[in-house]
Design brief:
Helices cover 27% and strands 16% of the residues. The protein is built from twelve helices and 14 strands.
């Protein structure tokens, strides 16, 4: 059928308008920052005015969880919308398999201009998901972010994955960002209060503020271009702070993440939500916003309903995992109601944190105190050997998860429910305990006759063996596991 020119013109006008209405998306992901360490989450010292602005004019998620507290597995999980053992890259320094779908590639097919700038840690310098992949520049890999916003094609919606290396060790202090005094830092109860620990934390505080600084520069540029209102900004981190009992662990200090969303077109009133979400939910959310079809492989669920109504419930239960991160491990976590449950499937060894706790100043201080017999019960958990095979906590009464309730009669029903939920998730998602697990990259530190024997030198850089889920072909399983109870 031959349509008149004027009808064709009208059709093209409205088709173009539909494309222009696709929202832009900017995803900021920090490196090694715990939820409590932004001002908008109540930190009394660390200054994050730009992220605080986004939270105060958008939505702050108080119960957002990662699927793992380990750099590359966390990023691979987020970009695929899948649990780590389902991505084929569940351990540190494992490249995301080519056959795994990355949600930005679907945005790209839907007409988006896509860029990854900064820390990658998932694949090579080129990938089908992005029009451009760059190194970011500067000590935190953030210096080219504003340039990407300025040089983008103006006739396409955009998706930017801006990945900082702040606040990953080693610390690198720069002049344009606030520097902190040791006397002002806040010492978590599971760390020892010494001058060295305090000085170590000042470097971390500084890099958290530097990440915020660059978030602010990008936000300013979006406003200058007149696109801030039609841009969904998400601010989060890949895992907890790089300190004892945080990064790589299943406690809130390691697995609970900051999650701030600014999107004026959908968030009518600034709000705080207590609804549970998982980091894998980002993929489904972005695809729904873009009007792109969600593939079966995405295990996450869109949280747009929460942006519209902060009281909406997306999930009743959250799952996370701790696999090899320099040291052998296989922990699984379930969060539901007010409870957090952890199962340690390798209890007959010490559950060491990020790298080894004797390697960095605050960790070394903790080991020195323990060798001298000066640690208190709140500081002893990382030295448990063997570890408790199960842990159960009430997060509302025990925010640092220091009091294990597994043997408490009042919590038997919650314990049974946690076990049941985890067993179902394990079966439905194809999780497995490796029969030939990846060994420690080097010997762990130990204390002999009140003296610290430091961690050994690396035997093999990345000695990967059988990975979780491999025996069940989990990389080919798409079941999301339990979502509602």
């Amino acid at each position: 059928m031959n349509y008149p020119w004027w009808l064709i013109s009208i059709f093209l006008f409205y088709a173009g308008s539909a494309v222009s209405r696709q929202p832009n998306i900017v995803f900021f992901i920090a490196d090694d920052i715990s939820q409590d360490d932004f001002g908008c989450y109540g930190h009394p010292v660390i200054e994050t005015p730009n992220i605080d602005f986004l939270a105060e004019n958008g939505m702050r998620f108080d119960n957002a969880y990662l699927t793992t507290s380990s750099c590359s597995p966390s990023r691979c999980s987020i970009i695929t919308g899948r649990y780590p053992h389902n991505t084929g890259a569940p351990e540190l320094h494992v490249r995301l398999p080519d056959e795994q779908v990355r949600f930005p590639e679907l945005l790209r097919k839907a007409g988006y201009y896509t860029v990854l700038s900064g820390k990658n840690h998932m694949f090579g310098k080129k990938d089908r998901a992005f029009d451009q992949i760059t190194g970011g520049g500067g000590p935190g890999k953030e210096e080219d972010w504003v340039g990407h916003v300025r040089s983008r094609p103006k006739n396409k919606p955009f998706f930017f994955w801006f990945a900082s290396t702040d606040a990953h060790r080693p610390w690198n202090v720069t002049e344009e960002v606030i520097q902190y005094s040791p006397e002002d830092v806040v010492i978590p109860p599971y760390m020892v209060d010494t001058p060295i620990t305090r000085d170590d934390l000042t470097g971390y505080y500084h890099e958290v503020s530097r990440f915020d600084h660059y978030v602010g520069l990008v936000t300013k540029e979006l406003r200058k271009q007149g696109v801030l209102e039609n841009t969904m900004i998400v601010v989060t981190a890949d895992n907890g702070r790089p300190f004892p009992r945080c990064k790589s662990r299943m406690y809130d200090s390691g697995i609970k993440t900051p999650w701030v969303v600014h999107y004026p077109e959908l968030i009518d009133r600034p709000a705080v939500t207590s609804s549970l979400i998982s980091a894998i939910d980002l993929s489904a959310t972005c695809l729904e916003l873009a009007g792109a079809k969600e593939p079966e492989c995405v295990q996450g669920r869109s949280f747009l309903s929460i942006l519209k109504d902060p009281k909406a419930t997306l999930r009743d239960v959250i799952f996370a995992e701790h696999n090899w991160h320099v040291y052998q491990n296989h922990e699984r976590m379930v969060r539901f109601g007010e409870y957090l449950y952890i199962r340690n499937n390798f209890p007959n060894q010490q559950n060491l944190c990020y790298e080894s706790d004797d390697y960095y100043p605050a960790g070394a201080e903790l080991w020195k105190a323990h060798a001298a017999g000066k640690t208190n019960p709140q500081q002893l958990q990382i030295f448990a050997n063997p570890c408790p095979p199960e842990e159960l906590f009430m997060v509302n009464k025990d925010p640092h998860q220091l009091s294990n309730l597994v043997n408490e009669a009042n919590h038997v029903e919650a314990l049974e429910q946690a076990r049941s939920l985890l067993s179902l998730w394990t079966k439905q998602t194809g999780d497995s305990i490796p029969g030939n697990p990846t060994p420690n990259r080097h010997d762990p530190p130990r204390i002999v006759d009140a003296k610290i024997i430091p961690a050994g030198k690396s035997k093999v850089k990345n000695p990967h063996a059988e990975m979780p889920g491999a025996s069940c072909n989990a990389s080919g399983i798409n079941h999301p596991g339990p979502i509602k109870i």
